[in-house]
C-alpha cells in the first residue's frame, strides 16, 4: 500500500486489526489528550512493524500515524501475525529485535533532548531527519510546534532558531 503525505495509516483508538511494516517513507505519530493537547510522540521509519504495543497481543492504537512523505507499507492481518507468533517460536526473536531497535532509537532521541543548547538539539534532529526524509527539509515535514516537542522547546524558540539558521 502506498500512502502520500498527510494520509493516515491508523487512528488513535483504532482496533488494530492489522499491523503494518514500513517499507519506505516516514510517519509521525500524534496523540490527542483529553484536555485537547495534541502531542507528537513518535516517528516511524523503514524497517519498523507497528503498532509496537500490539506486536505480542492486540491493543487499540495509542495514537494517529500520518505519512510525512510518500510511504510504502506492507499490511499484515493481526490474526495472521498472532497465529504465526504462536506457531513459530523464531518469530519472538524477530519481535525482540524490532523492539530493541525502537528502544535504541528512543535512547538516541533522549540523548538528543539532553544535549546542551536548543540549537544543538535542532542540529541533531536535522541530521537524523536527513537520513530518512529523502531530501525534504525539516520544516516541510513538521510544524514548528512539532519540532519543539521533539527537541524540548517552545514553538517560539524553534521560530528563533530557524531565523538564526537562515
Structural notes for this entry:
The structure is a single chain. By secondary structure, the protein is an alpha+beta fold. The chain has helices at 78-87, 90-114, 118-132, 138-141, 144-151, 155-165, and strands at 2-3, 8-10, 18-24, 27-32, 38-44, 49-50, 64-67, 71-77. GO terms for molecular function: DNA-binding transcription factor activity; kinase activity. It comes from Paenibacillus typhae. Keywords: Activator, Kinase, Transferase.
CATH topology of the domain at 1-82: Jelly Rolls
Kindly state the number of beta strands: 8
Strand order of the largest sheet: 1-8-3-6
Structural class: alpha+beta
From the alpha-carbon coordinates, what is the Rg to the nearest angstrom?
17 Å
Give me the CATH superfamily of the domain at 1-82: Jelly Rolls
Could you estimate the helical fraction of the residues in percent? 40-55%
Short description:
Pfam families: cNMP_binding. This protein has helices spanning 78-87, 90-114, 118-132, 138-141, 144-151, 155-165, and strands at 2-3, 8-10, 18-24, 27-32, 38-44, 49-50, 64-67, 71-77.
Features of the shown structure:
Jelly Rolls, four-stranded antiparallel beta sheet, 166 residues, 6 helices
